[in-house]
Design goal:
With 311 residues, the chain is of the alpha+beta class. The protein has helices spanning 18-33, 42-48, 75-88, 111-119, 192-195, 279-287; strands spanning 8-13, 37-41, 54-56, 68-73, 92-96, 106-107, 124-128, 131-137, 140-147, 150-155, 162-168, 171-178, 180-184, 208-213, 223-225, 231-235, 242-246, 250-254, 259-264, 269-273. It folds into two domains: 8-122, Probable inorganic polyphosphate/atp-NAD kinase, domain 1 (Rossmann fold, 3-Layer(aba) Sandwich); 131-264, Sandwich (Tumour Suppressor Smad4). Strand 8 (131-137) and strand 9 (140-147) form a beta hairpin.
Length: 311
Amino acid sequence: MSEPQARSVLIVAHTGRPEAVRSAHLVIDRLAGAGIAVRILEDEAADIGCADVEVVPDGPSAAAAAEVVMVLGGDGTLLRAADLARSAGTPLLGVNLGHVGFLAEAEREDLAATVDRVVSHRYDVEERMTIDVTVRRNGAVIGTNWALNEASVEKGERERMLEVVAEIDGRPLSNWGCDGVVCATPTGSTAYAFSAGGPVVWPEVEAMLVVPISAHALFSRPLVVSPRSLVAIEVMADTPGAVLWCDGRRMIDLPDGARVEVRRGAKPVRLARLHLTPFTDRLVTKFGLPVTGWRGRTRPRPEEPGAGHER
C-alpha cells in the first residue's frame, strides 16, 4: 500500500507590510502544528525569516503539488501569486491585508480560522476565466501574455493621444482617439475596467469586456462580448509609444502598427472559497453600498427553491 502524499501549502506574502510578515508567522506555526509542510518564496524568505520551511524559487514550479497557495496581502499580491498557481492548477486563497481586496476570501481578523479551514479541507474551489493575449506586427508574433483581470492597451506618452481601431470577430468596429482600451474578464470588471466606467459583471457570467478609456468619439460605450469572441486592438501607424499591460504587472512595448489580440484563456485561475456568499453581498461589503430601506427576505421561504440551504 502506497504512502499518502505529504501535504504542503505555499505562502505568498506582501513582505513590505509588517502585518503580512506577522501573519505569515502565524500561518506557518498553525500549519506546521497540523503536520503540513510550508513553502515560501526565495525572494521573501529573508523578510519572513522562519525556520523549518521549504524555500522555493519564484516560478511556476513553486506551487506544483501544493494543496493551496495562501496569499497574505491585497489584490496585487494575489495577482502576483496567480502567476505561480495558474500553470500548476493550484487554488489561491487570499487573506486581505490591503484595502478593498476584492479577490480575497478572508479578512485579517479571520486568519486563524482560515488556516483551520485549510487544515480540515473545508473549502470549495471555483474557476475564474482568464484571457490570453497575442501581440503581432506585420503578421509576426512579437509577444504573448495572459491576465486574470485585464489587458490594457495604453498610451506611452502623456501629451499624445492613442489612436486605435477596435475589431470584434474579424470585423472593424470603430476608431478611437483615447488614453487606452481595457479588455477585461468578469473578475476584472471590478478592477481597472470599473474605474474606466465599465459595468460590473457577476463572476459566473462568461464574457469579455471592452472599455475605452477617455475616448474622443461619438461611440465609445463599454462593450460586453461573447467569451468565444476574438477582440483585436490595432495601434495606428502614426501613434508612438503605446504599451500593453497585463494585470498591471507585465508590460510589453507596442510599436506603431502593432495588433493586440485578446481571447478566452486556455487555463483558468482557481480560487478557494470558504463562504458561499452571494456576489451581491460581496459588492455591498467591499464598496460600502447603502442598502437602507431594503425590505426583502434574507432567506427563501420553505416552499421556495433553495429553502433549507444556507448561502
